[in-house]
Amino acid sequence: MRTVYSINKGWLFKKPDEDAISVDIPHSWNATDGQDGGADYFRGTCRYTKTLAKAELPENDCYYLEIRGANSSADVFVNGEKLAHHDGGYSTWRVDITKYIKDETVIEIDVDNSPNDRVYPQMADFTFYGGIYRDVNIICVSESHFDLDYYGTPGLKVTPEIKGKDAEIEIEAYLTNKKDGQLLRYTITDAEGNVVATKTTDDDDEDFDIKNVHLWHGRKDPYLYNAKVELLDGDTVLDEVSAHFGCRTFRIDANEGFFLNGEKYPLHGVSRHQDRLGIGNALLPEHHKEDMEYICEVGANTIRLAHYQHDQYFYDLCDEKGMVVWAEIPYISQHMATGRENTISQMKELITQNYNHASIVVWGLSNEITMHGAADPDLIENHKILNDLCHKMDKTRLTTIACLSMCDPNSEYLKIPDVVSYNHYFGWYGGETSMNGPWFDKFHKNHPDIPVGCSEYGCEALNWHTSKPAQGDYTEEYQAYYHEELIKQLFTRDFIWSTHVWNMFDFGADARQEGGENGQNHKGLMTMDRKYKKDSFYAYKAWLSDEPFVHLCGKRYIDRVEDVTKVTVYSNLPEVELFANGESLGKKTADDHFFRFDVPNKGETVLVAKAGDCSDEGTIRKVEELNQEYIFKEKGAILNWFDITTPEGYLNINDKFSDICKPFRGKLATTSFCLLLLKKFKSTKKNDDKEKKGGGGLPGGMKPSKELLQMAGAFTPLRVANLLGALEVKFTKEELLAYNAKLNKIKTPKK
């Protein structure tokens, strides 16, 4: 009988030029340096070593080493002999070590996360944590057993097909060394453990009927059946495998969005990166469970599991909680002509290992892969191969892509998958928040037969605060405003088949230097340590959750200078009353769930928001001057806010390009600024390398266009200068002050 024996404990870990230390798995060597900024985290090869006593292992015929996640490539040695190599850091893979087991067996695993040109991902806005960060097991099985060799297979494949009120279930079993006379016993049980179908046969592919089938219906009713297959030799069970499965239908309509079991079922949810502060990707089951609890609390009914295969336990949680899932491989940002085989093998692993999960409805082919253009014939061919592969391996699900915002909707690339989705950041990386809904209207009008979703949208927020939120200020108040606007624009357009906030949690991105805390992307609705829910978290809860609640926004924004300050309350209840030091400021209703109050600001005021039986409390305090600890000041910035002269009624480099360019003199000043920018960009080493390869020009290989200029109009010159620092485009203080001086002579255009 199969035994899964954990060998997580007691490994020796050796980093180059350092002494070996004792570690337990899960483990990552970038848990700290991959989150502290500087784009300098260690990427290389490290060795994990464990000595295994045969006497400790359950006695059986065959032994497989199972590695559930080692990023990003790994070599396995047993007693000094190399047995296997694997490329791909997010999937399960196994090595047959039966012939090499001795009384004492030394297992060595060399894990390598260094840059290369063949294994995805290589360029992306997240840290590629090195390590063996998921479980390692020895699987002990008889000579005849369910397959353990094919792309990390679970050994069985369950395909439900709904027929009226019933379901036909096909179960395919995959076997190694099955012998004459050995039989298979199939058993299907319902969620209560009752047997609903069973059969004993020598056939490895059987169909079963479930009468009056109980459907898996998302978060409303995530009902799961269980399929078990046993390999029998007489009365002896040699091996068994099992899988939960759900019976459901779905379709995606270009005009009406997503349907589950024939019912309209709007998909609104989040994207998830798996890492955590201080531990990287080396998560324990309780971390996954906690993440799911928060995602359920916010009211999401869908998750985009970006940008790679996640832990099997988390897919199980998605099934159990009724999440509709987008699963994808890390084919991201930069197409590599030498990486095709890796995209194919990672897709085979993703589908093989996750086929039985009821939660998954689409396979993601790629993310923002057209950053350097969508016309590359090799890129197009790679996507066609992946698309065909998905449909060959899985005839029940659809394919999708997450498109870069600037990707031309008329490109051939966009016509490959069954459905598409766009990553848009209008209102953060240029453009205005108001551009989001109209962009989708235009797409839908021009491409009425293509189902379109919004796979990423968001903006960064840290513990900065203001009563006058503005794009690029990194305040919690601007993030809340941004998401209020996006909710109203995206959730009210029925044709958008899904929306996924970027991101549920802040995550590690060691190259980032934004917002005053380097090494993270802070677009999460929660902080990376899962300790704080930002106000925007509750904006979604107000729209999506049925759990009654009320939330007083701005509880970290205490010191305020204005005599009357604006306070926002979020609730999914119809009416909210706000009290200031016990005195009612009145009751408000709000169709959009966002309740606004004008609050007198004198001395210290305790605010209490009440809705139904729910209440929330906070404090504000009147101060004469802005609390400087609320204001983001760029660390190592070329210019700080106090360096910039801002004469009233005249332009400065904190104004948006769209305003600066309205007057003719503003256009002239900006033209010279842009010429200087391009000159600097072309002179950087990174760009020199691109030009040698036929690239160069604007960052990311983007081409000048009307849409690009429209997006850029919402940036300020100072923000552009600070952001481009990450691309080694450096402005001097004198250059920026000279540009500011020119702008100071130009009157601010009338609104």
TL;DR of this structure?
The protein is of the alpha+beta class.
Describe the structure.
By secondary structure, this protein is of the alpha+beta class. The protein folds into 5 domains: 3-143, Galactose-binding domain-like (Jelly Rolls, Sandwich), CATH 2.60.120.260; 156-245, Immunoglobulins (Immunoglobulin-like, Sandwich), CATH 2.60.40.10; 250-547, TIM Barrel, CATH 3.20.20.80; 560-628, Immunoglobulin-like (Sandwich), CATH 2.60.40.10; 635-743, no CATH class. It has 13 helices and 44 strands. It has an 8-stranded parallel barrel with strand order 27-28-29-30-31-32-33-34, surrounded by 4 helices. The chain has a 6-stranded antiparallel β-sheet with strand order 3-2-4-10-7-8, with no helix packed on it. A 5-stranded mixed β-sheet has the order 38-44-43-40-41, with no helix packed on it. The relative contact order is 0.08.
